[in-house]
Amino acid sequence: MSGDHGHGHSHYDSPASRRARTPMEVRAMALEAALVENGVVTTDAIDAFVDVMEHRFGPHHGARVVARAWSDPAFKARLLDDANAALAELGIAGLQGNVRVVENTDQNHNMVVCTLCSCYPWPLLGLPPTWYKDYAYRSRAVLEPRKVLREFGLELDDHTRISVWDSSADVRYFVLPLRPDGTDAMTEDQLAALVDRNAMIGTGLVAAPA
After folding, report:
1. Which of 140, 162, 173, 204 could form a disulfide with 198, with the two C-beta atoms 3.0–4.6 Å apart?
2. Is the pTM for the entire model greater than 0.90?
């Protein structure tokens, strides 16, 4: 990727992405070029940041944690007791801050929000979605969580309790979703493939395999 810079290309200018660019992409390209040209940041630093975002951060890491917890009761117990230590066992440690894992059950559903800004366990879930940072979600998730979940397409039984957890700089919450039926014979890799980001925020469920 670094070689592209020598020909005047940016991270957004790969052959696979030569199409009509969105206004956001155009602004990002212009900002990157200006920062490099003015010596604020080097192309190597940009490459390193992109590598971190693509490989060290992302919901695939969170999905791996969920799959291990579903497959290994002892790991699940450690994860719920001391998430940071359990994450370190999987080589995920040090960047996500202090994480606490909350478990969904048949009686209780957990949902994560950050009412003050957008605190979020990036290494486990990747970049936060736009709606997570939106003021409407940050306020309504606390005031009317059942209605917000319904807007995400998640209709919970009236008897299911909803717990809303407010992430902050001190602690970042991560939802351990319910394991769907029909997955007893699946491997960890197969289980991880079922888990998406919304399930680990609590705005969705993990669907059973077709």
Report:
1. 204
2. no
